[in-house]
## 1
Amino acid sequence: MSRENGSGTHETIAAISTPPGEGGIAVVRLSGPRAVEIAASLFQGMNPLTEAKPRTACHGWLVQNGTCLDEAVVTVFPGPRSYTGEDVVEISSHGGTWVTRRILDALVAAGAEPAAAGEFTRRAFLNGRLDLAQAEAVADLIRAKTEASRRVAMAHLRGRLTEQLDHIRERLLGICAHLELELDFSEEDVEFTSREEVSGSLAAAVSEIETLIRSYARGRVCREGFNLTIVGRTNVGKSSLLNALIERERAIVTDIPGTTRDTIEDVLDMDGICFTITDTAGIRETSDPVEREGVRRTRIAIEDADMVVVVFDGSTPLTPEDSAVVDVVNGSGKPVLAVVNKSDLKQNIELPLLKQRLPAGETVFVSAKSQAGIPGLIARLEEAALQGGIPESGEVVITHARHHAALERARSSFLSAGDTLKSGLSQEFVALDLRAGLDALAEITGAVTSDDVLNHIFNEFCIGK
Amino acid sequence: MSRENGSGTHETIAAISTPPGEGGIAVVRLSGPRAVEIAASLFQGMNPLTEAKPRTACHGWLVQNGTCLDEAVVTVFPGPRSYTGEDVVEISSHGGTWVTRRILDALVAAGAEPAAAGEFTRRAFLNGRLDLAQAEAVADLIRAKTEASRRVAMAHLRGRLTEQLDHIRERLLGICAHLELELDFSEEDVEFTSREEVSGSLAAAVSEIETLIRSYARGRVCREGFNLTIVGRTNVGKSSLLNALIERERAIVTDIPGTTRDTIEDVLDMDGICFTITDTAGIRETSDPVEREGVRRTRIAIEDADMVVVVFDGSTPLTPEDSAVVDVVNGSGKPVLAVVNKSDLKQNIELPLLKQRLPAGETVFVSAKSQAGIPGLIARLEEAALQGGIPESGEVVITHARHHAALERARSSFLSAGDTLKSGLSQEFVALDLRAGLDALAEITGAVTSDDVLNHIFNEFCIGK
């Protein structure tokens, strides 16, 4: 399972592995059979790099054609006990954009190939240093912006998902082998495993897989966050509500660029969960009582929402604009939460009418101005996003659509195998279904995979990883 | 010269040393007496970190209260053979903003203090691992955006300036000691060094110092770049000229924010020199023949310029607006270059009149449209910015205003010492001047320094260096 280039020889790759920008340390990394030789050609230290002890930091200077590029600490990690499984050299230099670029250029001039996105981790996968679910976890870990996203990535990186899948696969692999063996002896009517045992193992596997599939709702929110859209007519206090949330919670990014829909997006870290909150422009009162453009915008903003928060002004009776908003929300089929704002003022809103018009949603009362009810609202939103809270450290939840789809296919194949078994059809068909389900599970860890899948996964990585 | 905190004990500091953002590797660094102990409290590997071999990379996991934060490679650099001279631990983890933040937080919870800007390098200086000029070179190296800036920083980092200053100081220190000794024996009228020798040594030192002072013009441009302002009335092709330069050269940054003066700034790397080019709005023809506002803007844009490029339209005779521009430029006293654009069209500009109106500047003919003359213009600009080109690798040029000012003071003191010597005044006064000059030189490398100077220098660093 090692990677070769066209000419049949391994290339040695190089890349800047630290983020771009000015910092105290930059690391340029090499991997491949010529990694030590190429780094050694630039290194001037107490001893040649070719004589360096494994995994020992060597101080020296990087010199190209008589020009000293930088001072550096260089460490050689001989394969296979390295990140990629190949010889790896890490050059740790004074940070800085231009200097680091010059070091990479010098390594390329000395024979290294610039690494593609994710190529170090791809090689680590191809050399069996980690499996595909772990490789995806590495990318997730780098992108993690909250504790929930870090934690689910870490569980996958530690191999927890792989362990659980291996556990399911091992038992069924044994059964599958027996079934296939029985086919070879089909004339003799032997039975290596009883039908009850096969049936029981299938049911147990399906049950475990279904638990994983169910965990995807939580896992997806942990990894990707939760999209909340705030809607409501103008002057109900949508912006004040958003500001009240931002004031209380940790805002990661505000005003995401590319919001071409007349909406504002804010990203909040609410107790470890990443909420992307879209504030819509609001439906305005115009000569035409219900503004068409406002309705259109609200509808679009709701499209990507995991939940819709409809804001009302508690101090005034419901207006035709409120009704227009409610119609759009009811039509969307999205989970909904009604927030009645301005609880600090005298309440004039017709609550029974509101509940009748918006039967799906719970109602929460807040004052964005006085912050009354805001902690309760946050708790309600967190509960909606992530029933059961952030997973425990080490708890396995499914976080990738790719894994979810593979598990669905595995489940379907195993259910089909069970049906076939019951219907008394030939073992051959049972074995086929079983094998298809096992392959689906194997896709998750990459034991069975294709170049397309690998390209898709590793192209999402940054260069240098 | 070691740093202590208020309670008399050394603090152990920690910081993220790689640039912020997503990358393949992030490094969190610790320095101080408890560095190993604090890192070891989170580390779970084959062996405890307290037993790790010096400068040897150890693979393991970082675990805080049962929560696994990340996989990491940890290297211990025991003092005094470390960057800071203290015990240093480098934790190299999967990159990523949130994970890295969590690791730092865990180290702080375990007893580390968050490091201040430049605190690692400050400790390195205080522990004698590098001198002050080298410390400044580290910051310059990180900020270097072109080959010229990298090269001058590298020469200082390698200690070339320190060597030269030490050479000057050593000779004069001997003389100073002799003069001071003579004062002790002043009753006896002994002379340990002849007046001719003292005089000759002072003259030699002044000559070497003056060479360094002269190098500042080049060194400053290498380190800080060269500010070029393009002026001219509208429609002479200023923007096209700028685009022609950008097309040919490497643009580092375009449209620097904060240009509130109706000007556009572009930063170009022209053969290793960093040119910041300011394009002014241009003086427009209005009912009032010479627009006051345009003149005002042009004057402001010229203020920070190292050189002014005045653009004319070669295809038309000079206009009153051209004259208004020329008046502003002539009044500024800045070096000037006249660029006659549109050389691809029939020429109608009155060259003798132009030369008469703008006597200070050379004239270059170009066509921004056809690129004719652009390489010549670039060569002319580079020559103006940096007579003699980029310094050779290892050549010492003065790059900091602080060094320049100290050298000026040293020169002045040594000249004064020479005058006192000639005037036959007491040796005492000669020795005082000599000592003042030596102290000025010592300020550059930090042998003599103050907390104010150190704060000023290290506050300019990034955190983590």
## 2
Amino acid sequence: MSAEGRSVSILGVTGSIGQSTMLVIEELRAQGVDIPVQAVCAGRNVDALADACRRMRPRFAALADETLLEEARAALAGLDIEVAAGASALVEAAARPADWVMSAIVGAAGLAPTMAAVRRGALVALANKECLVCAGPLMLAAAAASGARLLPVDSEHNAIFQVLTHPQRVDKLTLTASGGPFRTSSQEAMAAAKPEQACAHPNWSMGAKISVDSATLMNKGLELIEAAYLFDKPEHQVDVLIHPQSIVHSLVHYQDGSVLAQLSAPDMRTPIAYALAWPDRAGISSPRLDLATIANLSFETPDEDRFPALRLAREAFRAGPSRVAALNAANEVAVADFLAGRIGFLDIARITGETIAHLEGAEAGLIAKTPSSFDEVAAVDQAARHAARRIAVSLAAA
Amino acid sequence: MSAEGRSVSILGVTGSIGQSTMLVIEELRAQGVDIPVQAVCAGRNVDALADACRRMRPRFAALADETLLEEARAALAGLDIEVAAGASALVEAAARPADWVMSAIVGAAGLAPTMAAVRRGALVALANKECLVCAGPLMLAAAAASGARLLPVDSEHNAIFQVLTHPQRVDKLTLTASGGPFRTSSQEAMAAAKPEQACAHPNWSMGAKISVDSATLMNKGLELIEAAYLFDKPEHQVDVLIHPQSIVHSLVHYQDGSVLAQLSAPDMRTPIAYALAWPDRAGISSPRLDLATIANLSFETPDEDRFPALRLAREAFRAGPSRVAALNAANEVAVADFLAGRIGFLDIARITGETIAHLEGAEAGLIAKTPSSFDEVAAVDQAARHAARRIAVSLAAA
């Protein structure tokens, strides 16, 4: 298989995707597949980084938190691994000459390392959302220039990638969405929803931020934007379909009437293994799908009145990359306020929408521009966070 | 697209698949795609053949029924088309140098013409079931020798063909089946079923023979055998799943946990267009799938007690090609008897099973041999028909 001899680096090795990536690598190694590991990196969990190093035996290990460098060195003593810390160490981990790089650092911290891997033309398995949401055009331009290939790992985008056999013959893409915990809730129930209700995702166990994003459907809105960037389609060719069982991960509709779909049991090892072995396929022991036991797959159109995040995402994508970065930043502020109990659930989309409307007036120049650097993205991000906080405060006071 | 300039012949142009093939060609021609037609042929419907000739403008037209040659010549006068009749004319139609041949002659009459197209290395769009069921190994060996490519048109096999991206990494194939009109019927209701009930297929409008085969699930049993031949898998790697909505046409399960599926509205133009444009894809106006409107897809394991045809088909495939040919012949006899009101619905599978058991004793040499020619296939076919008729008569008399 194509993973044979493929050297890899894992950025964000201690997170959920990083852990699943190690499981896939270990399983393939047990099959006799040679997968040398160049570099791994983590944020500040020294113990988990040391565990990863003992299992993966990389040449280089990096920690984001510089204050933990000595602790990390001590934990990795005797393993013959070069250890470094700080933001530049993460970038160095990505720059090391691995054929394949898993980009799974959560949040904006993943931008610079991922860009380093893209710039040197690697195969980049993309599990970080911010790379495309905040810096889609920059990332895609860099990949086009270097010949890097972006291999989507998110289950929806990976599904599309698996069945995108004829990119020039696509009618539309359909991203499926579980619908989240409030799929069948009334507007009133959503207005009164508490953080613990919003975090009770029906099919996947995830962090609080992404759970709330699933509840508002902003997660799907951001995925819609990612899909439009990644597969080079206008937003009106990217549909969202509610599919509560989360078995059909996404679909590609072709101009001959065929619709191709990827299905699986919900286990991230499957998309990770696909990205790792691409363009071949690996054999791994992730759970097998049994449709007769599942018995029913259901589908419904999302309600954009109760879930305005989808509309906001479409509008932002149409308006350009700065609007998308502002959407993402404002949503982050609003979700944090919701999780802290300062605002209601429906206020999340309201604050996000009002933030963009405000910036379109007050920061028209900034928001109309297509960012040509991460610094310009960061300027939009800061302006949006500032405006969102102000709007949230006045809302909480009202 | 790849259909551009592709010359085609249509064997069985007046049947349902032939008509849909013409619609696809006409639609692509209207888009400016050049699709010259070499030859068309039909059984005995002169008017429909003449209509096809006026629309397709082939160089050569053939009719199976020799007695209608003069009538056909008169009907096609002035069109500058060479006309011939008889079994050898059908073979000549297939032998004409078209790049792509639609094999849609129903029944055993399709064997020799399809083989002629396969032997000269054409792209052969396969809509005739008997080619693989009766002569699978012969057809596949001829294709391997000539470099012919078999492009399955049956919706289930076409679905698998569309998503068989990694043939060496397949866990199993799943053929979906509507379950037919007796999916939820009791054994007693099935025992008492009349031909008109058996012919009431829930999703497709088809001929009486194939409708009864759908009701017994023998149609799926024969498709299982076709799939095993076509995709070179043992029968235990080919599953059957009841899916009453007939939207998911089949699925391929991979060793990494991914399951790829093709879905569409039930319209044969979609698989025909796929075969015609392969390895590209065409754009045609077949109906678009709307999953939100369909709302529910359901799946269940077939009940092999009520539908023993599936078990018979698996056993026949395991036992070898002669057993498969005997299965098909015995089933044809039994279905005809059922349609004529001479036997009950459950007797169809019973006669088929008893015929094979009888041949295994009385014709052990014949049935154990792998046929090396169509004549040897015909000998098995005749022995099976003879035995099935005898068994049916004794059953009807009992």
